[in-house]
């Protein structure tokens, strides 16, 4: 079988984007979108990739002339969907540890307009040991500051040569936090005041929100997929069809990055908070409200939950009736997003394990469910029954005093499973799981270190949780779920 670089050729275009990170996510998200926009004639620009960490290799990129395939697999409009696309949008890959000169050379490109990064959530952090004369600096913000100073110096501080910075790291206000780090380095290194003014006035640091499940290189299926493609591809990258990129910044950015004109799911806004809230409350909230109960009902992956009529009914009701009304976007938008979430959860190509989603469920309930719970409580004057049931399901899942190597051991139909969370959470359940239900619930709901408040102060909450947990323990999760769905609340 031939290789991808024997059948396809790179396409030369001006480099407009420097990308810190060569990982699966950026390649199936930003690089894919850039390629689509190029092909449809709304953007004419390629990407230079910078490997921002000292380990790893760019050998496969060099071997394949920076060509690779993105395979989007999932459901669209209820039907199975597969799209395979050869990506030609990467012009160059640079290892800034082995070739720092080439890294700085990118900063001097006249055509450059954007910097994109995905250096993990820990990547946007200030390291006071970074120095200007290091080659390179250890932190990503340190490298970026040096890169931006090189550009400032090359073009004599021209306002027209400022860059748009688009971090996609999964932290809130990622653009603002990255800018704070860069300004901190500019001060620490005592760089020219004119450079600090250029950063403030000529560069734009956007906070962004991204959403796409990227499953990367499909080890078990790669040979079969390559047979269908008709070529070998060592950089094959798989992902779901759904995508969303919300970019918070001034309006003129959309003119410089006109991806929506190519039909791409990019939203430019002056406030990304409602979109972040929508994702956390609906997508993440649907997981947290449902999967622990689903696991105790014998399901192991998300797709199995979607094919179980009872669990699916519970998920749809909790999302559409209790979560969606609290999202601060037009109702139709929130409902459409919820429907897309149900379709994504039913992806036939992704086996998303419930136990992996179960990690740190106590803090997840606080972040993903509690704000919605409180909004519903304020609106109705009583606890929302299905979100309250999810609290009881969490307790049932965690209820154990059996300990083994940093994990609690739960039991499902005689089989064991591991429960992983912060040590304080696990210790709580070790010490309280054998108490009578009413004492157990009161202790958990009133533990302010978990919730930031005493949940027993919400009228009827404690009583409802006790009833739901008793039902689960006495009748089983399925019967308890049937009962709560049919009850008045």
TrEMBL record:
Gene Ontology molecular function, alphabetical: mannitol-1-phosphate 5-dehydrogenase activity; tagaturonate reductase activity
Signal peptide: none
Domain Mannitol dehydrogenase N-terminal: 16-256
Origin: domain of life: Bacteria
Keyword NADP among UniProt keywords: no
Major enzyme class: oxidoreductase
Alphabetically ordered keywords of this record: NAD, Oxidoreductase
Record EC number: 1.1.1.58
Pfam families (alphabetical): Mannitol_dh, Mannitol_dh_C
Domain (Mannitol dehydrogenase C-terminal) ranges: 273-462
Transmembrane segments: none
A single GO BP: D-galacturonate catabolic process
Coiled coil: none
Gene3D superfamilies: N-(1-d-carboxylethyl)-l-norvaline Dehydrogenase, domain 2, NAD(P)-binding Rossmann-like Domain
Entry keyword annotation includes NAD: yes
GO cellular component: cytosol
Catalyzed reactions per annotation: D-mannitol 1-phosphate + NAD(+) = beta-D-fructose 6-phosphate + NADH + H(+)
Name of the protein described by the UniProt record: Altronate oxidoreductase
Organism of derivation: Caproiciproducens galactitolivorans
Gene: uxaB
């Amino acid at each position: 079988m031939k290789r991808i670089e024997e059948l396809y050729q790179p396409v030369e275009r001006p480099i407009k984007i420097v990308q810190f990170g060569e990982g699966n996510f950026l390649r199936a998200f930003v690089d894919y979108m850039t390629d689509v926009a190029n092909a449809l004639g709304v953007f004419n620009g390629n990407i230079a990739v910078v490997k921002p960490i000292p380990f790893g290799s760019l050998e496969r990129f060099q071997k394949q002339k920076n060509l690779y395939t993105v395979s989007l697999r999932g459901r669209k409009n209820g039907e199975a969907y597969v799209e395979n696309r050869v990506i030609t949008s990467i012009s160059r890959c640079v290892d800034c540890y082995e070739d720092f000169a080439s890294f700085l050379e990118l900063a001097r490109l006249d055509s450059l307009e954007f910097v994109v990064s995905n250096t993990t959530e820990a990547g946007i952090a200030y390291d006071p040991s970074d120095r200007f004369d290091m080659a390179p600096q250890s932190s990503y913000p340190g490298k970026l500051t040096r890169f931006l100073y090189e550009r400032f110096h090359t073009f004599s501080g021209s306002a027209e040569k400022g860059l748009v910075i688009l971090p996609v790291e999964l932290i809130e206000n990622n653009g603002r936090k990255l800018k704070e780090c860069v300004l901190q380095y500019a001060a620490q290194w005592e760089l020219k005041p004119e450079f600090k003014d250029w950063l403030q006035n000529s560069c734009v640091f956007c906070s962004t929100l991204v959403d796409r499940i990227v499953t990367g290189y499909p080890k078990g299926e790669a040979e079969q997929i390559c047979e269908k493609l008709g070529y070998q591809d060592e950089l094959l990258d798989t992902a779901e069809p759904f995508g969303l990129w919300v970019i918070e910044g001034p309006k003129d950015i959309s003119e410089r990055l006109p991806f929506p004109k190519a039909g791409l799911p990019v939203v430019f806004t002056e406030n990304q908070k409602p979109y972040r809230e929508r994702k956390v409350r609906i997508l993440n909230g649907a997981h947290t409200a449902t999967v622990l109960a689903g696991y105790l009902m014998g399901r192991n992956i998300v797709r199995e939950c979607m094919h179980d009529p009872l669990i699916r009914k519970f998920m749809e009701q909790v999302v559409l009736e209790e979560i969606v009304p609290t999202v601060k976007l037009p109702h139709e938008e929130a409902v459409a997003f919820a429907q897309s979430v149900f379709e994504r959860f039913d992806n036939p190509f992704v086996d998303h394990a419930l136990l992996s989603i179960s990690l740190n469920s106590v803090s997840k309930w606080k972040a993903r469910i509690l704000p919605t719970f409180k909004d519903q409580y304020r609106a109705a004057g009583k606890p929302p029954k299905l979100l309250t049931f999810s609290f009881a399901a969490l307790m049932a899942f965690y209820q154990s005093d059996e300990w083994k190597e940093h994990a609690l051991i739960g039991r499902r139909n005689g089989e064991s499973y591991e429960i992983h969370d912060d040590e304080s959470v696990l210790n709580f359940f070790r010490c309280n799981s054998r108490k009578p239900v009413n004492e157990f619930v009161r202790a958990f709901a009133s533990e302010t270190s978990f919730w930031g408040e005493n949940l027993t102060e919400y009228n009827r909450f404690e009583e409802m949780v006790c009833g739901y947990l008793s039902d689960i323990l006495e009748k089983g999760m399925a019967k308890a779920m049937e009962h709560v769905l049919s009850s008045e609340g």
